Q: What sequence folds into this?
């Protein structure tokens, strides 16, 4: 969350709506990307490809 | 190798190879082309790397690359090409990387001509490049000294982690004299600070960029402490016929040889002239000149320029003695007779009181 | 639960970069760090960073790095690699660094076939200094020094330096890729892998030009920047392999 700069690339490229931009701000003043509870992450890793800030961690359950 | 008859340009190169120089990068420019040519022929035989770079600017940056790995690296050029290297020299100073830069001076400014001159003194000793740094500058007067001082330059550079300039001129570069070369270095101490790839340890970076002004200031004063050490330990000069001198000439390089010739002449007429010949232009031998100012009322500064080193002499004298400057710029090589006339006249003025 | 994407070991831990939101540098830095690890060359790598936004790249890459005066990276890399052919040497340069002030060094290091990998980040603008025209700025593109749009008559044409270098026999591998989406990012990694492997195999000089987003100076959102690369920039600078002499080199060596 702290690393995110709110560039929204991950939200845009996620095909499963698994990410969204938070209403909240991180300590750097960015609306950070967060998991969208309504979406269905398949751990495709596309978000991590386009994230310039290594701000996303993807877990396998 | 015993005594060999060799040109200054070749001696620069041979001495460097013997000092353990393993990389040379340079671009042709008269009157020092033979230096690079010698390197191209001989450096690879000693396992070294020679590259004729695309410009003098590229060459100094290749030196930076080689130097950061710990190698003894060298480049050479003449006046206009040295101007092109100034950014790189400033970077070397900022990085605290050792390197040897040879300038075989020619007439200037601009394209100038290919004849010998000493018009780059300011450039050499006052930085030339941007920022708060100093470059040790060694000034040989003979081909033997070309060999000795170039050899020493590498040690000086490594000892203090600084670029070092060896300042010659076209005459020195082209003329041939007998030389006994120092022994080839067979081993050199390891450089802990060199970049080798992080291996098992922490990565390191070399940067001259220090965005935080307080940190930058600290770095600047750190460099000043280093330069003070160099000023304390590394001043070299020759005192020629100084025991009973009443009038003192100050000159370096080729000009000093000519001045010595003039002094020999006037001594025949009973004129007690002597010469202080700086071998290090930076650090300048301020101390000896200051000492002499207590008893020598008259100094004559000879340069093959319109007057650059004379400033350092005046600063050292702090107004205590008279300074007369005589210079020939533009590639003119003065004669001993010419200098003798000046010494004679200054001596007469001195005696008149 | 296990983490699928571990932090790259050659990327300094937990840094938050100074790069703008959506900047291509972050993506390419990550790819480079991953490749150094995957190819096992991180411990013996020396990177040369440029003047430009990536002047602080040494804060991010956890390998030995040296700063370069603007444009001189390939000359410095030459000095390093010639003295230490056992090390893995790469430069990371922007369009001004590589194709304006550094043109001579870029061209001649390529011509000499230096065994280095050159990463050329092309964002069609001078980022760090506030958005001036770059050699690769497109015609009609407005920048702070082409406020009326780049005009061929006064400002020249977008420079295709990589295409020119590709014609040099000294160049083993040259490719242009684009950060225009996840697929573009994958292709970028593949191209850089080829370039790095080229040096590892002793096959010579490689250059990868990466069309990279600069949302701040293009005055677009990051998402739109990616689109601009895909729809506009790639038309001027088409992606693809521009030179591949690896086979020729292998045969020559073998």
A:
């Amino acid at each position: 969350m702290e690393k995110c700069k709110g560039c929204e690339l991950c939200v845009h490229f996620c095909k499963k709506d698994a990410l969204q931009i938070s209403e909240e701000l991180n300590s750097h003043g960015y609306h950070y990307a967060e998991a969208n509870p309504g979406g269905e992450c398949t751990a495709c890793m596309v978000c991590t490809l386009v994230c310039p800030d290594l701000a996303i961690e993807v877990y396998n359950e | 190798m015993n005594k060999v008859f060799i040109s200054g340009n070749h001696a620069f190169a041979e001495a460097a190879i013997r000092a353990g120089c393993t990389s040379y990068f340079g671009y042709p420019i008269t009157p020092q082309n033979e230096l690079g040519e010698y390197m191209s022929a001989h450096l690879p035989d000693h396992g070294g790397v020679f590259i004729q770079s695309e410009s003098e600017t590229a060459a100094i940056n290749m030196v930076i690359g080689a130097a950061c790995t710990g190698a003894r690296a060298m480049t050479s050029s003449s006046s206009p090409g040295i101007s092109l290297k100034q950014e790189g020299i400033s970077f070397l100073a900022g990085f605290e990387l050792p390197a040897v830069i040879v300038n075989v001076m020619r007439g200037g400014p601009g394209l100038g001509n290919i004849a010998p001159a000493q018009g780059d003194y300011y450039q050499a000793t006052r930085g030339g490049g941007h920022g708060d740094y100093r470059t040790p500058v060694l000034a040989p007067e003979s081909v033997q000294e070309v060999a000795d001082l170039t050899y020493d330059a590498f040690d000086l550079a490594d000892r203090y982690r600084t670029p070092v300039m060896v300042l010659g001129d076209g005459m020195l570069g082209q003329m041939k004299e007998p030389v006994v070369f120092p022994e080839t270095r067979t081993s050199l101490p390891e450089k802990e600070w060199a970049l080798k790839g992080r291996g098992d340890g922490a990565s390191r970076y070399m940067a001259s960029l220090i965005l935080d002004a307080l940190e930058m200031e600290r770095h600047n004063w750190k460099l000043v402490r280093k330069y003070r050490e160099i000023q304390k330990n590394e001043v070299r000069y020759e005192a020629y016929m100084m025991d009973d001198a009443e009038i003192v000439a100050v000159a370096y390089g080729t000009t000093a040889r000519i001045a010595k010739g003039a002094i020999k002449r006037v001594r025949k007429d009973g004129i007690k002239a002597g010469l202080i010949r700086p071998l290090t232009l930076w650090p300048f031998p301020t101390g000896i000149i200051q000492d002499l100012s207590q008893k020598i009322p008259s100094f004559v500064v000879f340069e093959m320029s319109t007057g650059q080193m004379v400033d350092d002499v005046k600063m050292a004298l702090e107004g205590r003695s008279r300074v007369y400057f005589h210079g020939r710029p533009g590639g003119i090589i003065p004669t001993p007779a010419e200098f003798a006339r000046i010494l004679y006249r200054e001596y007469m003025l001195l005696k008149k009181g | 639960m296990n983490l699928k994407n571990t932090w790259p070991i050659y990327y300094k831990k937990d840094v938050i970069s100074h790069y703008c939101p959506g900047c291509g540098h972050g993506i390419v830095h990550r790819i480079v760090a991953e490749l150094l690890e995957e190819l096992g060359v991180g411990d013996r790598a020396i990177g040369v960073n440029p003047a430009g936004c990536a002047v602080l790249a040494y804060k991010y890459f956890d390998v030995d790095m040296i700063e370069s005066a603007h444009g001189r990276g390939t000359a410095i890399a030459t000095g390093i690699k010639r003295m230490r052919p056992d090390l893995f040497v790469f430069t990371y340069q922007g369009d001004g660094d590589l194709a304006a002030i550094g043109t001579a060094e870029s061209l001649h290091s390529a011509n000499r076939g230096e065994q280095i990998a050159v990463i050329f980040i092309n964002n069609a603008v001078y980022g760090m200094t506030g958005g001036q025209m770059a050699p690769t700025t497109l015609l009609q593109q407005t920048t702070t020094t082409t406020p009326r749009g780049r005009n061929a008559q006064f400002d020249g044409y977008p420079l295709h330096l990589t295409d020119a270098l590709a014609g040099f026999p000294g160049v083993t591998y040259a490719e242009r890729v684009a950060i225009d989406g996840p697929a573009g990012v994958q292709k970028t990694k593949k191209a850089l892998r080829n370039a790095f492997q080229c040096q590892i195999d002793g096959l010579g000089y490689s250059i990868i030009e990466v069309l990279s987003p600069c949302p701040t100076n293009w005055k677009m959102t990051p998402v739109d920047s990616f689109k601009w690369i895909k729809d506009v920039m790639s038309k001027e600078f088409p992606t693809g392999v521009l030179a591949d002499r690896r086979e020729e080199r292998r045969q020559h060596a073998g």
In short: Chain A is about 15% helix and 25% strand.
